[in-house]
């Protein structure tokens, strides 16, 4: 029987993280590497990923950088091929890439709506499908989607219909993929973060009114810090969650309980 803490180790496992070039994605990459994983960084901004990969290398971690637009099938196929060629398999996929537009629904253009859905939903499907094929053939794997509390509840204060719609779809896509693949050894779960400072939320966090709204609305009285996503992520990715599938784990300071 394994030591309880050893259940959380990811030594030798291969993890792909999309949206890995900065912010929360970069923090997730570091966390997986600290847990022992070989990490594949996938995003559009190569320079930032190269810097992060160098940092990981200096810390003794093995990393691969692949430029990838998750909305393009050819890019995703190349991501999977380069990963398998380098590491001979894929054990973990973290679908983290995401964008938003804060705008009232009646003002958002169809083009802008579809752009958000393409990254946040279609990208998750494409990456899950392509990586899932590798995992299903191996009979094992863990997919962790980064959804959002706005996939569970609405937010009138910061209107973003396309984001909420796409993340709500990711929530149920997570359940559907888990229902299809769990008997074949592939677990699929999701994190549902609330408000964390990142590039995507930078404009919101500049506003004292918005920050006060988050503090007053959150039972813990503050926004999250990026490292607070690492424990739930590593849990879902590791053997510690070997009997957990199809679940949505809010990391929200209590946002969804009130």
Task: Walk me through what this model shows.
With 258 residues, the chain is α/β, with parallel strands linked by helices. It has one domain (4-248): Rossmann fold (3-Layer(aba) Sandwich), CATH 3.40.50. The chain has 8 helices and 7 strands; from the N terminus they run βαβαβαβαβαβαααβ. The chain has helices at 23-34, 46-58, 73-87, 110-138, 161-181, 202-206, 208-217, 230-237; strands at residues 14-18, 38-43, 63-67, 92-95, 141-146, 186-193, 248-251. Strand 4, helix 4 and strand 5 (141-146) form a beta-alpha-beta unit. Helix 3 (73-87) packs parallel to helix 4 (110-138) and helix 4 packs parallel to helix 5. The longest helix has 29 residues, at 110-138.
| CATH architecture term | 3-Layer(aba) Sandwich
How large is the radius of gyration?
18 Å
Instruction: Please give the largest β-sheet.
Output: 7 strands, parallel
Structural class: alpha/beta
Low-pLDDT segments: none
Number of strands: 7
Order of helices and strands: EHEHEHEHEHEHHHE
* Strand arrangement in the largest pleated sheet: 3-2-1-4-5-6-7
Distance from N terminus to C terminus (CA atoms, Å) equals: 40 Å
Number of domains: 1
What's the CATH topology label? Rossmann fold
Q: What share of the residues does DSSP label as strand, in percent?
A: 5-15%
- The pLDDT mean sits at 96
Number of helices: 8
| CATH top level class name | Alpha Beta
**What's the CATH H-level homologous superfamily?**
NAD(P)-binding Rossmann-like Domain
Helix content: 40-55%
Shape: globular
């Amino acid at each position: 029987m394994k030591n309880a803490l050893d259940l959380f180790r990811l030594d030798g496992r291969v993890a792909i993280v999309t949206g890995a070039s900065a912010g929360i994605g970069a923090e997730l990459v570091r966390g997986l590497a600290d847990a022992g994983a070989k990490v594949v960084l996938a995003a559009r901004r190569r320079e930032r990923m190269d810097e992060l990969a160098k940092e990981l290398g200096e810390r003794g971690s093995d990393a691969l950088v692949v430029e990838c637009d998750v909305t393009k099938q050819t890019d995703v196929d190349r991501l999977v091929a380069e990963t398998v060629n380098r590491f001979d398999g894929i054990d973990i996929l973290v679908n983290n890439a995401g964008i938003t537009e804060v705008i009232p629904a009646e003002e958002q253009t169809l083009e802008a709506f579809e752009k958000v859905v393409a990254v946040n939903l279609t990208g998750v499907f494409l990456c899950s499908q392509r990586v899932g094929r590798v995992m299903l053939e191996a009979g094992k794997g863990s997919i962790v989607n980064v959804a959002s509390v706005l996939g569970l509840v609405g937010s009138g204060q910061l209107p973003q219909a396309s984001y909420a719609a796409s993340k709500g779809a990711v929530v149920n896509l997570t359940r559907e993929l888990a229902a299809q693949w769990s008997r074949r050894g592939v677990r699929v779960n999701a994190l549902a973060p609330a408000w964390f400072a990142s590039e995507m939320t930078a404009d919101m966090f500049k506003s004292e009114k918005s920050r006060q709204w988050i503090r007053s609305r959150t039972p813990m009285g503050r926004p999250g810090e990026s490292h607070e996503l690492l424990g739930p992520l590593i849990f879902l990715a590791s053997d510690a969650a070997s009997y957990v599938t199809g679940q949505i784990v809010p990391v929200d300071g209590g946002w969804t309980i009130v």
